[in-house]
């Protein structure tokens, strides 16, 4: 784990510095915030909708608990899996909600990913894996497009407050900012430092200097710099409860799980299986470990429960990886062999 340190009792700095995140503000505050946006007729709110478990449950809350009439918005950048599409369809149909899909130039987006993955394979660096998902950050750009087209300003997001993964930028050389309250970091100085470290890593594999750079930087601008308005997070006011979320989605909406993993997290994301495989193979852990660690720190899981969960969740998702690499037009065997032959960051 990048930048980890232990005290004499064996407790790490991540635990010492942790501040609880899953203790939402009163729901009455959210009700007050949304009251001015209510209308006598027509849709009242946009719900950014990836088809993942958190955005699906957020949509459930918006309709069933807040009593709003939403329109959902999905950004298809070429890595939404068929399973994700089916869950989008299920939720929209069951709740009678219109789903607007903004589609990128998918052929171009996938070509960008392929070029960057080829560059990564020439010089594997876990800190550079994030470039493989940079194309989806235009999600934050096109919410503005949908707002203008629908004349709806309010947007309610379902971002999980426990999905904090300091290690992804840590492997690039960025120390963790334990005081950061957002899942995504903001600020000019932070982004300048991050981009300078990324540039240094890119120099070690010139293939990164391809036509995707403009798309990557534009997406990160809209995520981290562009001013957001009428923008609120449901889970700032609603406690994130994994059991409640899974139970609601699976029982009330017949939500579909993946066949290659027991978790319901990121199963509609075509990239997750590959980058988790790379992290686990090279570093010995994945984002599942950091997520479960945060649940332990919140008092939601015991250490023993978390270890049992990640033992299953960290198993390679080969079917999803094959879909990902086939979609990019890359050879499954050679890519996996490259990852497997990369020098480990831990002793085996």
Q: In DSSP terms, counting alpha (H) and pi (I) runs of 4 or more, how many helices?
A: 15
CATH architecture of the domain at 26-257: 3-Layer(aba) Sandwich
Residue share in helices?
40-55%
Largest sheet: 3 strands, parallel
Keywords:
single chain; mainly alpha; Rossmann fold; 3-stranded parallel β-sheet; two-stranded parallel ribbon; globular
How is the topology of this model organized?
Layout: H1 13-16, H2 27-34, E1 45-48, H3 53-65, E2 70-76, H4 82-95, E3 98-103, H5 106-122, H6 139-150, E4 155-157, H7 166-170, H8 188-203, H9 213-224, E5 231-233, H10 242-252, H11 272-283, H12 287-298, H13 303-313, H14 318-328, H15 332-341
Parallel strand pairs: 1-2, 2-3, 4-5
Helix pairs in contact: 3-4, 3-10, 12-13
